[in-house]
Write a structure and sequence with these properties.
The complex is a heterodimer. By secondary structure, chain A is mostly helical. Chain A is built from 20 helices and two strands. In chain A, strand 1 (70-72) and strand 2 form a beta hairpin. The longest helix of chain A has 32 residues, at 159-190. Chain A is globular, with a radius of gyration of 21 Å. By secondary structure, chain B is mostly helical.
Chain lengths: 496, 528
């Protein structure tokens, strides 16, 4: 019986092919406004990509039990537990974004371009999870970034959107340059780009200063992608100005892709036990960045009056929590748990944060306004959507209405286990205080009496996205085992 | 395994969902019906209770225990679904279901908008409170522990008084910060132990066996001290003890009466229950080391809470501050660390839950009719509302510790245990000073009753003061009957409680223990 063996990179290929099909559709029927067909192709492609990645992950492809990581293209790309985990994440977020965009772009021109760009960016993000050399990492990162710039500026008659796009592009271009320069310095010091070879050449390197600068610049370039301090200041503007589904896409999937690249670069190419001998202690750097990022994000979020901007700053705060995964590797203990917990948190964050931005997209379609006050009394008019939003923000705050509770506390627990109780304590206090601003949304929706918003429509795609994100956020609370297990095992492989 | 506790939790949560989805006009009846199912269920569990020993210690059998793996964290740690009942948790489960039904009935009159949401949240809160008392794995327990905040936030925020927004967010953030500090403290302990699970019995036994190692270079004894401090601080906020009590008066005064009933009756007990389970069961040596300080905090809570109550004009504030005072007795019983002390503390949790709930319900019924709670605005209510006033008086005497009421039994056990304490060097001093708190309690309750209930009728608000409706009086009478029943026959719960706490002290005064009533006679000539 003939059997077909799927290519290990099938998830990424499916996303890329879906992008091309969307563009093909557009060239056959130019200026088509058939958003049903276009969103359908995009949704189908991302569902298939996510499904295949989940299947591979469950079946053990690229993981120790089936013989370890699979490398492709001469070791330029790798498929292992980590890459599959993040392929699932990116594809899931893409599904939500596509569903929510179906209604959001109804009155906009260039529908095909929109979905094409989303899929291309998703392909890039998914490839970032598989990048195994600094060259492919850079290419994948650019593939993710360039469509994102255009998507942020998609509402081209909206000044905020255009300004955000330009700002995002300029800061992005600068940080790409920083990253590329860092890569060149690493290459100068080690003579190779592939992560494994870089690590092998580190010990023999005589240019610790050049290498150290390279590591610092690479960290800077990735800090941009993950919206971490000090390269975070594009994020509030970009997230606020962009179409809300794209804000969710960037703050969830793009951030996760930046993080997985950071995880792989720093654990595989610059393992701490080797670069530590060269006095390059990146764990300390990330510990400082984690504290500053989470504190700054949280305190800035608490001062916002507009919901979308609050979510943008809170997204910076969450980047701070995830950075703990890298910071805590500097401890004496095994880092599997804490790094795995960072991965779990990114996955759960993908659902709850995208869900929250989808709700904002819904509010924008209803034209209810931007501030907390504008949301007053929404709970009576749209109970299901508001229930979903309540679950998202409470889960973001770390209350056990959703899986955000589990991922966040496993993360804090991992930090304590790695000997970073002080970091866990700072994060925990930050998290507790975040309840203040997250609950403002809930208060506005349910506790305050509104004047009524005259809501008549129930956009089907946006509601579908909300319900999917809701089911995932709540469902993972009970069925967290596969996620947690896969993440910790994947982290274990990265740390060797 | 028959999954009795799972069924109890599931039925309660299901009732919550049904009520939440029901139209407002049926919500109150459905909610009462929905709360009776877990009540009957918990009574059934009580009748068939065959547990022995303490849930966290090795000797003895848990009742209705189930264990299943919930989450694997790679090969490193497992988080379990582990539930079961012992003599400490069983009475609290019964208290929760009983008081929820009473609170729901007491809400029929005051809650007149968004009923289905109100009752749905009450039932969700019941389910998570039950979860807190039955869960025996740390993470599972922590899920329920934190979930309790969500319905309470809404109950205060939506249906509360004029400053409800402030009170709700203060309650939310204050108690959440405390929980997180506690979380870090506990988890640090687990990582320094040779265990691969957060299962509470496993952790407790490992700690008591002295297996604690160092974590990240911190010496075990330092680690123990820090973890104890973190957990104590976290739970102290929940109890609350002075000086971290400031969220309580705000929350209580602004909360609608049925939510106050649950807050005083059950939510505060989460704090003392957790102190018993964590601090005093897992780290008794550290508790003994700091016993004097903790006892001082307990006595301070008793006296300061009572003094604050004495200074109030608002009946609800009086009851709220007096709760701080009463919870001080519980802490004193715990820190005494004798069988009577621990058992009395647990009994006092149940007793105070019933009595404070009853007091809040009485105040609520009076307020529903008179529209004021100020002592100076009321006089002679007893003429117009005889049954309510009578129950109020009875409950107040229960609070003061009148014999044949549960308050007497609880406080008696606590004082007895505290006197016998060998952990506390100056136990008689603390006990004596704490007993003085009862005098102050009597002072403010008698003063308030005398002014509000008796004398010629007068009300500052112009409302027609008539006897309360039958469904308002019914929960008052039923809860009062329970208070009396536990006062007459404390062994209903105390035997099981004593069986569960006696091993904690490893011998201690266990030898002196007979039946609860027998002990009242036996003690004067007793062991010491």
């Amino acid at each position: 019986m003939a059997s077909v063996q799927l290519h290990p990179l099938t998830p990424q290929i499916l996303l890329g092919v879906a992008a091309l099909v969307v563009l093909l559709f557009d060239s056959v029927w130019p200026q088509s406004r058939n958003r049903g067909a276009l969103a359908g192709i995009a949704a189908l492609g991302s569902v298939a990509a996510g499904g295949v990645a989940a299947w591979f992950l469950a079946a053990g492809s690229g993981q120790p039990r089936t013989g370890g990581a699979i490398t492709e293209f001469g070791g330029q790309l790798v498929v292992d537990g980590t890459s599959l985990f993040f392929a699932v994440l990116v594809a899931s977020v893409t599904v939500l974004v596509v569903l929510a965009s179906y209604d959001y772009v109804a009155d906009e021109p260039y529908v095909a371009e929109y979905f094409g760009l989303v899929l291309l960016a998703a392909t890039g993000m998914s490839l970032m999870a598989s990048a195994n050399s600094l060259a492919t990492a850079f290419v994948a990162l650019e593939l993710a970034s360039l469509p994102s710039y255009a998507l942020v500026a998609y509402l081209k008659s909206n000044r905020g959107s255009v300004e955000a796009g330009l700002k995002y592009f300029l800061v992005g271009a600068l940080s790409s340059a920083v990253l590329a320069y860092g890569i060149s310095l690493v290459y100068a010091a080690t003579g190779s780009l592939q992560f494994g070879d870089v690590a092998a050449a580190l010990g023999a390197s005589t240019q610790a200063g050049v290498l150290g600068l390279g590591v610092l610049f690479v960290a800077g370039g990735l800090a941009f992608k993950t919206a971490s301090v000090p390269f975070h200041f594009w994020a509030p503007e970009a997230y606020e100005g962009a179409p809300a589904p794209i804000s969710g896409f960037l703050s969830s999937a793009s951030k996760a892709a930046g993080f997985v690249l950071a995880f792989r670069v720093f654990t595989v190419a610059f393992p701490l036990d080797v670069v530590g001998d060269l006095a390059i202690d990146w764990a300390l750097l990330f510990a400082v960045l984690a504290v500053v990022t989470m504190t700054l994000g949280n305190f800035a979020a608490a001062r916002q009056e507009r919901v979308k901007r609050m979510l943008a700053y809170s997204s910076i705060g969450h980047a701070g929590y995830v950075l703990i995964g890298l910071a805590a590797l500097g401890g004496s203990a095994d880092g599997d748990l804490v790094l795995g917990a960072s991965m779990m948190h990114l996955l759960v964050y993908g659902f709850m944060n995208t869900g929250a931005f989808v709700f904002v997209a819904l509010a924008e379609q209803w034209d209810v306004g931007k501030t907390f006050e504008d949301y007053e009394g929404l709970g009576r008019e749209a109970p299901i959507a508001c229930l979903a939003m309540t679950v998202f923000v409470f889960s973001l705050a770390g209350l056990p209405v959703g899986a955000g509770f589990l991922s966040k506390y496993v993360l804090f627990m991992g930090a304590v286990g790695a000997g970073f109780a002080w970091l866990a304590l700072i994060a925990a206090v930050n998290s507790a205080l975040s309840l203040y601003y997250y609950s403002r949304v809930v208060k506005a929706m349910w506790i305050e009496e509104g004047d009524g918003h005259g809501i008549e429509t129930r956009p089907v795609g946006t509601y579908a996205a909300l319900v999917v994100a809701l089911v995932a956020t709540v469902g993972l609370l009970a069925a967290f085992d596969p996620v947690a297990d896969a993440a910790v095992r994947a982290a274990g492989v990265l740390l060797g | 395994m028959a999954f009795e506790l799972e069924a109890l939790l599931a039925v309660t949560a299901l009732a919550a969902v049904v009520v939440l989805a029901a139209p407002d006009e049926y919500a109150e009846r459905l909610a009462l019906l929905g709360s009776l199912v877990p009540l009957v269920g918990s009574l059934y569990l009580w009748s068939g209770f065959d547990g022995s020993g303490n849930a966290l210690l090795a000797d003895g059998e848990l009742a209705y225990e189930t264990t299943a793996t919930w989450i694997h964290l790679g090969d490193l740690y497992t988080l379990n679904w582990h539930v079961g009942l012992d003599g400490v948790s069983m009475p609290l489960v019964v208290l929760t279901t009983f008081l929820t039904s009473a609170a729901i009935l007491s809400a029929w009159t005051p809650i007149d908008e968004r009923q289905s949401q109100f009752y749905g949240l009450m039932l969700f809160m019941e389910a998570s409170l039950l979860g807190v008392f039955v869960a025996l794995d740390f993470f599972l327990w922590f899920v329920f522990w934190e979930f309790v905040l969500v319905p309470m936030y809404f109950l205060i925020g939506v249906w509360g008084g004029p400053r409800r927004r402030y009170a709700a967010i203060k309650f939310f953030v204050y108690t959440n910060v405390a929980s997180l500090v506690m979380f870090v403290g506990f988890v640090a302990l687990v990582f320094a132990l040779p265990v691969e699970t957060l299962d509470l019995p496993t952790v407790a036994q490992s700690l008591r066996a002295g297996e604690l190692g160092s974590l990240a270079g911190v010496h075990p004894s330092t680690l123990k001290g820090l973890a104890f401090l973190a957990m104590f601080a976290g739970f102290a906020v929940k109890v609350p003890v002075v000086p971290v009590h400031t969220w309580l008066p705000d929350a209580h005064v602004e909360a609608p009466t049925p939510a106050s009933v649950m807050l005083a009756g059950v939510l505060l007990k989460m704090g003392t229950y957790a102190l018993l389970r964590f601090n005093f069961t897992m780290l008794p040596d550290v508790a003994a080391e700091h016993a004097e300080l903790i006892a001082a905090i307990a006595v301070l809570s008793v006296l300061y809470g009572a003094m604050l109550a004495l200074a109030q004009q608002d009946l609800k504030r009086i009851v709220a501050y007096s709760s701080i005072s009463s919870m001080g007795y519980v802490l004193l019983g715990l820190v005494a660390f004798t069988t009577y002390g621990l058992g009395g503390a647990t009994f006092q949790m149940v007793s105070h839950g019933l009595i404070s709930g009853l007091m809040f319900m009485c105040v609520g019924v009076i307020y529903n009719t008179t529209h004021t709670r100020m002592v100076g605005d009321l006089s002679g209510i007893a003429d117009r509302m005889p049954v309510t006033a009578a129950v109020f008086v009875a409950a107040a005497f229960g609070y003061m510790g009148l014999p044949l009421m549960s308050g007497f039994a609880g406080e008696f056990f606590v004082f007895l245990g505290a006197f016998q304490s060998t952990t506390l060097a100056s136990a008689p001093l603390y006990t004596g000073v704490a007993m003085f708190g009862i005098v102050v309690v009597a002072g403010y309750l008698l003063w308030a009753m005398q002014r509000a209930l008796f004398g010629p009728f007068f009300s500052a608000e112009d409302y027609d003061v008539v006897p309360a409706a039958r469904h308002d009086v019914l929960p008052l009478v039923v809860v009062l009957l329970a208070v009396v029943a536990l006062g007459v026959a404390p062994e209903l719960f105390y035997d099981a409680i004593q069986d569960a706490v006696v091993d904690l002290t490893r011998g201690g005064t266990a030898a002196a223990v007979g039946g609860a009533l027998g002990l009242l006679v036996a003690v004067p000539g007793g062991e010491d």
